[in-house]
Amino acid sequence: MPTIQPHKFTLKDVAQQVGCSQNTVSLALRGSTRISAPVRGKITRIAAKLGYVPNYAASNLASQRSGIIGIYTQALYDAVRTTIVNDLLIRLHTNNYKPVLGLAENIDTPWYQSPWLHTFKAMKVEALLIVTESDITAIPENLESVPLIFVGNQPHKNLKCDYIAIDRREAGQIAVEHLIRQGHQDILIACNSKSYFGSGCVNVIKKNRANAHFVKYPSVRSIISKTDEQAHIERWANYLLQNRQVSAVVFVDAPLAVRFLRHLDLCGIRVPADVSILSYDYFPWAQDIRIPLTTIEQPLAQLIDTTVEVVQNRLRRLSNTHTQLVLKHNLVVRESTQVHKLSR
Predict the structure, then answer these.
(1) Which of 122, 214, 222, 307 is most buried, judged by most C-beta within 10 A?
(2) In this structure, what CATH number is given to the domain that contains residue 220?
(3) Average of pLDDT values for 129-156?
């Protein structure tokens, strides 16, 4: 017995049910403000009731536009990147545009060598967001025709594209300035001194004639294993026990700072009575741990809002000039730092 196929409703069916033209239905389902809100609502409800699904491929073919926004980033292994990507996917998904996410398979592979870049070019994306903290200094020639927008990158004035950047050197400066104001003069920098964050810390320490302390740390791009991570935590704790003049530690990674706080409990080192701990990175649980962690946080809400605005302006082709913005970090003071007592 032949299978009876369910009736597939079309744009014409929706228009007949509503009592308007097919063009009005099409505009309403794309969210056009040319159609009043009550009419848009009525059309949307009837389309949903009928189970009508717009044929975006046909629509985009007719308009010679893909309607696709590419988003590319490394694996979603931290709260910052996950928050940015998740919110952008939600905010940029509209009747007219559909975001497509590409994730890097290898952190050591440069973004421009990823197979995803070829995929996005083939899809003829109308905007391509690269969510990265890297220092992007130039765009390869084969990608100059792609409408790139960098999000969260280290700022660089020579880039010929849009970007919404955050300067990690500034974050390091804010961190150490906070500790210096509290009277700390011997500060352990628990990150690579050649990184942007680390160099920002060192510059302020030198400027204030304080003392920077270091324990060997992996290269700027390295991701260390849990075993190596624990070894570093133990080295930093031992360094504090052997160098009692050190009264503060600055981290570039908040989860690592939290694990260090836990280890200091085992060593009998009190926070913040004996040593103050401060870390870079937005960490959603910083207030909820036993000793709330002082953090230098990326302005995520502003970063996401600004990115959406820049993308929308680029899609509307409102300007031929590039938008290049550098957002400021936020210092969130919690219990892990306090005014330094001269005697320990």
Answers:
(1) 307
(2) 3.40.50.2300
(3) 90
